[in-house]
Amino acid sequence: MGTGKRGLMATAVAVVCAVTVLAAPGTAFANPTPSPTPAAGQALAPAKDLEAVRKKLDKLYRAAARATDEYNAADEKADKQSTQVVELAKKIVKGQEKLRKLKDRAGAAAAAQYRGGGLPPEAHLVLSDDPQDFLDGAGRVREGHHATKGLLGELTRTQQDLEQYAKDASAQLKKLEAGRKAKAAAQKKIEKQIAQAEKLESALQKEEQERLAELEKEAANKAQTAWLDSGILEEINGKASEQGKKAVKYATAQIGKPYQWGAEGPRTYDCSGLTSQAWMSAGRGIPRTSQEQWKQLRHIDVQDMRPGDLIIYFADASHVAMYIGDGAIVHAPRPGRTVTIAGAGSMPILGVVRPDAGTGADTGTN
After folding, report:
1. Is residue 324 helix, strand or coil?
2. For the ranges 155-164, 249-258, 306-315, 329-338, which has the lowest average pLDDT?
3. Ramachandran region, residue 26 (left: φ > 0; alpha: ψ -120 to 50; beta: rest)
4. How far apart are CA 163 and CA 303, in angstroms?
5. Active-site residue 145, yes or no?
6. Candidates 124, 146, 299, 331; catalytic one
7. Is 271 one of the annotated active-site residues of the chain?
């Protein structure tokens, strides 16, 4: 939340109380380089042990990704609730000013009656000797009654509005506090998972870390090759929309920038931060998290996808990437990695969504 927004919230609370060139599909992600040969005399972990480490790391980073989605969702809610609290605070300030003016008017009416000797208008009317004065006075009395009744009614309504605004603001502040706790809990989960992963990696020798990186590439290449061997790429020939081209241009321009959970750029990104900002640059606002992108955007068959569409990964929709064509994606992978290009089939695909406006998006259907 920006400094200006924090200032508004403080007031509200006080009132209330470089595009990368791709190799040909099928070769770009299918031929890992040989693993480095360990130096003589070093006892390195067997390949099967390193494979177990790879799977463990994958599990930890996946858990961190899920927690990151929780954090981002809580952050988005907190942002909306903060805005609502600020708006309610503005209404309360305006309502208090209106109430003050109405009370001043009521006080002036009471003072006028006092200056008239304390007699009600009806009494002055009865004491009049002039018939015309009587008729004119009767009209003024009726007008006065209506005005007084209207003033009292407006006073009552304004007081009721203020009470309701105060209740609403109090409820929003409670939600905001609950959201802050949810964010803090998600942050702890993220930091715990990442710390465990970093500790696991740091315990490896340099050669083991290099071999581990190769194992990660091999696993991704194997999945990509299997995906390409299915013949799916022959069916995917959709062309990007104008908005899709802009989104792809933005996303690929971020290649090489570090992953950072909860980040939306411009220096660092998490997976959904990259995709949401890319589409915002194209003039289309979409949900902040990968899970909400999956829930709210229009679902597209994989064979019908085109550059700019978003591919949602894993059964829990915990990762998202942007399809850029030729069987490739651009994405922010995980902590310790940078925004990069990878094979679209290098991870288990849950489905594809299309953010383009005016194409039946936002249906919420699966």
Report:
1. strand
2. 155-164
3. left
4. 56
5. no
6. 331
7. yes
